Amino acid sequence: MTALLTAFAAGTLFAVGLGVGGLTQPARVLAFLDFAGAWDPSLAFVMAGAVGVYAAAYRRVRGRTRPVLSSAFTIPTRPDIDPRLLVGASLFGIGWGLAGYCPGPGVVSLVTGHASVAVFVVGLLAGIVIADVLAAPAPTIVRTGDTRLTPQEGR
């Protein structure tokens, strides 16, 4: 129960931070991405603040043997940059630039009731399902021996 409440509190803090930082306003995000036009650098300060908080938190917990609410840390084991990562990052950036939302702010913005946000979130969920289907491993056929019937078996 403690882990669930902690996750809820962290999600709520994240949602409030997105709202306060202006990341739930597509026009502001698109202005930040418009380097050749009316560029709005204010989100760079939001990102710098987020990186600073993360750096301080990381420094504090990296000496621990395990997290406070879990039995072990979950750390990625692949340090390489592969085509899946590049394609995924590119699709994320293109989607963010076209819609003005990324997943977190999109879900938080559902409370506005705007149809465009709902369309974004439905597309987001569809993309997740499609990615899961495409990433699923092909079924493996295991041959354990010859299953043909022989005349001695009387069948």
Indicate the topology:
Layout: H1 2-21, H2 26-33, H3 42-61, H4 83-99, H5 103-108, H6 115-135
Instruction: Report low-confidence residues grouped into runs of 5 or more.
Output: none
Report the order of strands and helices: HHHHHH
**Percent in strands:** under 5%
Structural class based on helices, strands and sheet pairing: mainly alpha
**Percent helix range:** 55-70%
Shape, principal axes of CA atoms: globular
Major β-sheet annotation? none
Mean pLDDT: 84
Total of helices: 6
Radius of gyration: 23 Å
- Give the end-to-end Cα distance, rounded to a whole number of Å: 59 Å
| Tally of separate domains | 1
Write down how many β-strands occur, each being a DSSP E stretch of 2 or more residues. 0
Structure description:
The chain is mainly α and 155 residues long. It has one domain (2-135). It has six helices and no strands. Helix 2 (26-33) packs across helix 4 (83-99). It is globular. The model has no long low-confidence stretch (mean pLDDT 84).
Tags for this entry?
single chain, 155 residues, mainly alpha, 6 helices, 59% helix, 0% strand
In summary, what is this structure?
This protein is mainly alpha-helical and 155 residues long.
